[in-house]
């Protein structure tokens, strides 16, 4: 990659090289806006196994860089022929006498691409390649910042300081920038336990096919059952299947510093004992998985920005994954932010321009991402509520209808129009 040349009057510091930070890096590079990525780790690395993304996310990645569409095809995995536009097959996970185990309730459709899944690290490496390593400094953990009319001074854990015209915080759910911006005044704006979590495992598709048949093993599935749901989808070109068992677990999570309980096979088996044969066969393959407690931002600030510093992605609105949408919202943020920053006028005051840009970004992105956050949290009770009353055909049909409505507005929003609206707000603010 050649270094970005620009006439833009400012240097953007991106804090964090996760999916959000690297999406923003590519978007800025494509728009010739100079930037530097500061990442606390020694390299760009994703820890989780699989990720699934909806049609809105694919379209946004292509808006960021049109060539990403083809590149993604090299790493993605989709449902098998005939089911390419299916997001998930929704099934009953626990038989109840009237309905058989693994009864198919619906093929939940997400045209045109259906469920697009991939290894998290494969997606991150693809983005890192496009963003360019010359724009990254590793082992740089931001701890605080202070700002003046001239710019922002960032302080790092190694004692160093760096200056930038603006700071875009993409440093995830544990965001140090969010903490510095909000928590001294309001500690509740930190991540809160979401009353659930997952036993997670990565299975070989051959083993799973032998256990439950290729029909279910090779297509993305959600199983609904008493006080829990199970999600699984193929990744790694269909060689592996990413599995998560998500029970409700309302008791408080005591250890705020460690969200993982290792070796939870017995607890898992006990928790899902009343489920059907299909889920028991899946659990038998999972070995002794860890339990990851889910956290989210139960309370969000009035504003995502403070002067020249702005929050994006999980730093702004970390959500539970019950609608598979956190990364998608982070990537939409990155696109809209790049589009407002490209409109900064070199001949006017940077501070004023940046305030207007951030106002445009926030006015459009905050309501949408926080609605996704809120509905993702509610989706846990919705996925798990079916078994709270006796199953009937009428209740099953109602659930199918609600499922379609639940996702449609997330997947089929016009992200380019979001950016146009944000730019319009920015320009009107500058005209005043
Ligand atoms: C179990 C689970 C499953 C999920 N499944 C899905 C899914 O299927 N689909 C979906 O769309 N979303 C999913 N999500 C949500 C998704 O993972 C996040 O929304 C997404 O990763 C957010 O990206 P981000 O770049 O904002 O944050 P992160 O991915 O957390 O990246 C933050 C980056 O900042 C760096 N950093 C942190 N602190 C500092 C610091 N002080 N200084 C410098 N750098 C720092 C980190 O090292 C990291 O590289 C899931 C989440 C979970 C927990």
Verbal overview:
This protein has about 425 residues and is α/β, with parallel strands linked by helices. It folds into two domains: about 10-80 and about 115-190 and about 295-385 and about 395-430, FAD/NAD(P)-binding domain (3-Layer(bba) Sandwich), CATH 3.50.50.60; about 190-295, D-Amino Acid Oxidase, Chain A, domain 2 (2-Layer Sandwich). Helix content is about 40%, strand content about 20%. The chain has 14 helices and 19 strands. It has helices spanning about 20-30, 55-65, 70-75, 120-130, 175-180, 205-210, 215, 265-270, 275-285, 315, 325-340, 350-385, 395-410, 415-430; strands at about 10-15, 35-40, 50-55, 85-90, 105-110, 115-120, 135, 140-145, 150-155, 160-165, 165-170, 190-205, 220-225, 230-235, 240-245, 260, 290-295, 305, 310. The strands form four sheets. It has an eight-stranded mixed β-sheet. It has a six-stranded mixed β-sheet with strand order 7-2-1-11-19-18, sandwiched between helices. It has a three-stranded antiparallel β-sheet with strand order 8-9-10. Helix 1 packs parallel to helix 4 (about 120-130). The longest helix has about 35 residues, at about 350-385. Mean pLDDT is about 95; it is low at about 1-10. Bound molecules: flavin-adenine dinucleotide. Flavin-adenine dinucleotide binds next to helix 1, strand 3, helix 10 and helix 11.
């Amino acid at each position: 990659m050649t270094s970005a040349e620009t006439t833009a009057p400012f240097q953007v510091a991106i804090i964090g090289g996760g999916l959000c930070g690297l999406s923003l890096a590519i978007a800025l590079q494509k728009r010739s806006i100079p930037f530097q990525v500061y990442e606390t780790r020694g390299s760009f690395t994703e820890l989780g196994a699989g990720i699934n993304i909806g049609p809105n996310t694919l379209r946004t990645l292509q808006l960021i860089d049109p060539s990403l569409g083809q590149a993604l095809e090299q790493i993605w995995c989709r449902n098998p022929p005939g089911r390419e536009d299916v997001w998930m097959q929704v099934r009953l996970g626990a038989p109840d006498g009237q309905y058989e185990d693994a009864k198919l309730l619906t093929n939940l459709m997400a045209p045109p691409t259906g469920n697009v899944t991939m290894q998290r690290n494969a997606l991150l490496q693809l983005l890192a390649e496009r963003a360019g390593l010359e724009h990254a400094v590793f082992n740089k953990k931001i701890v605080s910042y202070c700002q003046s009319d001239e710019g922002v001074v960032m302080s790092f854990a190694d004692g160093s300081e760096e200056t930038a015209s603006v700071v875009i915080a993409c440093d995830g759910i544990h965001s140090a920038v969010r903490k510095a911006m909000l928590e001294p005044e309001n500690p509740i704006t930190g991540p809160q336990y979401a009353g659930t979590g997952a036993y997670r495992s990565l299975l070989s598709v051959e083993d799973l096919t032998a256990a439950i048949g290729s029909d279910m093993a090779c297509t993305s599935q959600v199983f609904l059952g008493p006080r829990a749901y199970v999600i699984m989808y193929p990744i790694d070109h269909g060689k592996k299947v990413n599995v998560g068992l998500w029970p409700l677990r309302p008791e408080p999570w005591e250890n705020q510093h460690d969200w993982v309980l290792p070796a939870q096979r017995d607890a898992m088996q006990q928790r899902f004992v009343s489920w059907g044969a299909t889920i028991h066969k899946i659990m038998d393959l999972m070995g002794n998985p860890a339990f990851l407690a889910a956290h989210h931002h139960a309370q969000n600030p009035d504003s995502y920005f403070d002067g020249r510093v702005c929050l994006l992605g999980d730093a702004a609105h970390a959500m539970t994954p019950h609608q598979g949408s956190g990364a998608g919202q982070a990537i939409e943020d990155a696109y809209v932010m790049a589009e407002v920053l490209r409109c900064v006028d070199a001949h006017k005051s940077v501070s004023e321009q940046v305030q207007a840009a951030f106002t445009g970004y926030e006015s459009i992105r905050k309501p949408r991402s926080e609605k996704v956050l809120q509905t993702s949290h509610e989706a846990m009770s919705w996925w798990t509520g079916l078994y709270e009353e006796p199953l009937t055909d009428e209740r099953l049909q109602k659930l199918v209808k609600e499922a379609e409505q639940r996702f449609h507005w997330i997947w089929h929003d016009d992200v380019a129009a979001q950016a146009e609206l944000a730019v319009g707000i920015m320009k009107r603010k500058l005209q005043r």
